[in-house]
Amino acid sequence: MSRTYRRGLYWPLISLLLCGLAACTTTRQPRQDWPQPRPDDPNAPVYPSWPPEPGSEGGVELPQQPAQPPVQNFPRSATEVSGPAVMALIQQAQAQRDAGNGDVAAATLDRARRIEPRNPFVWLELAKTQLAQDQAQDAEATAQRASAYSRGNPYIDQDLWQVIAAAREQLGDAGGASAARAKAGEIARMLPSS
C-alpha cells in the first residue's frame, strides 16, 4: 500500500476525531452566587441555623398542613366510583343481606371484590354483611382493610368506624366500641351538612 493512500485514509479519521472532541467541550459559564438578601427585605428567605435551636425544626417554622384533603373531592357513594356490574352486585348483596341470606350476600360481594378489588365501598358492604352474621372479628378486620382502600374518604370512614364500634360491642369490648364511636363522631363533624 502506498504512503499517499494511507495519508488520504487518515485525514478524514483525524478530522472526524477533532470534530467529536470539539463537540464534547463546553464553554465555562461564569459562577453565579446565591443572591444575598438585603437585611431590610421582608420577603428574604429564612435559612435554617445550625445547630438547630432546641424545640425547633432546624430553625425554620414548618407550614401547617391540613389534616385531610377537602371533603368535596371524595366520592360520597358507591355509584360514583363503581362500574355497573359492581353496582348491580352490591345492590343484590344488600337485598340478600336484608332477606337474611348473609352467606349468599358474602358470596355476591366476593364476586364484586374480584371485579374491583380496591373499591372500599365493596369492602364496607362485606364488613356490614359479616357483622350481620355475628362474625365480629372478621367484620372489624374487613373494615380495617376497607379503610386502607378509602384513602381518608370521610364518607366511607364514618361508616367503617360505626361498623368497627358495633363489632367491638359484639365482642364485649365496651372501651373499644366507645373509642370507635367517638372517631365516627369526629369524622361526622368534618362532613358538610347537606
From TrEMBL:
Swiss-Prot/TrEMBL keywords: Signal
Residue numbers spanned by region Disordered: 29-79, 175-194
Signal peptide residue numbers: 1-22
Transcription as UniProt keyword: no
Gene3D superfamilies per record: Tetratricopeptide repeat domain
Pfam families listed in its UniProt record: TPR_19
Name the record gives this protein: Tetratricopeptide repeat protein
Comp. bias (Polar residues): 70-79
Highest taxon of source: Bacteria
InterPro entries recorded: TPR-like_helical_dom_sf (IPR011990)
Compositionally skewed regions (Low complexity) per UniProt: 176-188
